């Protein structure tokens, strides 16, 4: 299984290169002009930004470092196991409070009778 950072890096790189290619075709067909900077240049600029973002994600840096971590299968399994254990612990604490509340309510009802 590939690391999340590798998959995201490939996706950003392919999308960025595709946008740069589209901007290149626009230049070739004279739809984009160097003399007149317009909205069409957003495609090429976005492509360059995605390529740069791809490089950052591959290094484990940048704004998506937490979303796409550089971890192997063992590290990912340990992280998920920790998350599951934490969720179960929170659930157990919530269940304990619910049982305590139910016991107190039963005592109050029995005292009122």
- Based on helices, strands and strand pairing, what is the structural class? mainly alpha
Q: Which regions contain 5 or more consecutive residues with pLDDT less than 50?
A: none
Distance between the termini: 63 Å
Indicate the mean pLDDT.
82
- How many β-strands, per DSSP? 0
- Give the tally of structural domains: 2
Global shape: elongated
- String of helices and strands: HHH
Q: Mind describing the biggest β-sheet?
A: none
Helix tally? 3
Strand content: under 5%
Whole-angstrom Rg: 27 Å
Determine the fraction of residues in helical runs and give it as a percent range.
Answer: over 70%
List keywords for this structure.
single chain, 113 residues, mainly alpha, 2 domains, 3 helices, elongated
Describe the protein in words:
The chain has 113 residues and is mainly alpha-helical. The chain has two domains: 1-70; 71-113. The protein is built from three helices and no strands. The longest helix is centred in the last third of the chain and has 40 residues, at 73-112. The protein starts with a helix and ends with a helix. The mean pLDDT is 82.
Strands, helices and their partners?
Blueprint: H1 4-28, H2 41-59, H3 73-112
TL;DR of this structure?
The protein is mainly α. It has two domains: 70 residues; 43 residues.
């Amino acid at each position: 299984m590939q690391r999340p950072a590798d998959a995201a890096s490939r996706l950003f790189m392919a999308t960025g290169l595709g946008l740069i290619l589209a901007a290149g075709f626009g230049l070739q067909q004279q739809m984009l002009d160097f003399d007149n900077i317009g909205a069409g240049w957003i495609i090429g600029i976005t492509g360059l930004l995605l390529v740069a973002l791809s490089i950052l994600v591959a290094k484990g840096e940048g704004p998506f470092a937490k979303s796409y971590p550089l971890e192997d299968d063992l590290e990912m399994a340990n992280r998920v196991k920790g998350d599951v254990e934490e969720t179960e612990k929170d659930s157990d604490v919530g269940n304990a409070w619910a049982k305590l509340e139910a016991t107190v309510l039963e005592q109050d009802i029995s005292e009122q009778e």
